[in-house]
Write a structure and sequence with these properties.
The chain is mostly beta strands. About 0% of the residues lie in helices and about 35% in strands. The chain contains no helices and nine strands.
Length: about 140
């Protein structure tokens, strides 16, 4: 399998990535701002990465948006968005001037196979359900009547 990388105009400033020839993305191209990068010239796959001045967006073989990384100057935020096979937004991780947001379109699972620590003040909005043992032995409980 031919391994290659090339640049369309301009100059390349960044990290060189080594990809195995066994990978579906064995052929790597870079491009100037606004161009499309296709992953396999032989199969004419439409899977691509679009890079512009605001970030990058990946599309799968069916030309559906899957992941976007970028900035939104008007909203004062930057972040990462995830989409399903229909290009429907499923989740976001982004920063705003005074905070950081993790948003799921449906369920959100935060899992640790060790201890999970949440620092700082915590506010729960909506219904809260606890499953398993809740240990208040080191807590100061206030506001219960």
């Amino acid at each position: 399998m031919k391994k290659w990388a090339y640049i369309i105009g301009g100059f390349f400033l960044g990290i060189v990535v080594a990809i195995s020839s066994q990978s579906a993305l064995a052929n790597v191209q870079t491009s100037v701002v606004g161009e499309v990068v296709k992953n396999d010239e032989k199969t004419n796959s439409v899977a691509k990465v679009v890079i512009n001045e605001k970030g990058l967006i990946t599309y799968d073989e069916a030309d559906k948006k899957r992941v976007a990384l970028g900035i939104n100057d008007e909203a004062g935020m930057s972040g990462l968005a995830f989409y399903d096979q229909s290009s429907d937004l499923k989740g976001q991780v982004y920063s705003v001037p005074n905070g950081f947001h993790i948003i799921a379109a449906k369920d959100l699972l935060i899992r640790s196979f060790g201890e999970t620590v949440i620092q700082g003040d915590v506010v729960f909005e909506g219904n809260v359900k606890f499953k398993g043992t809740v240990d208040f032995s080191e807590a100061k409980i206030v506001g219960l009547e």
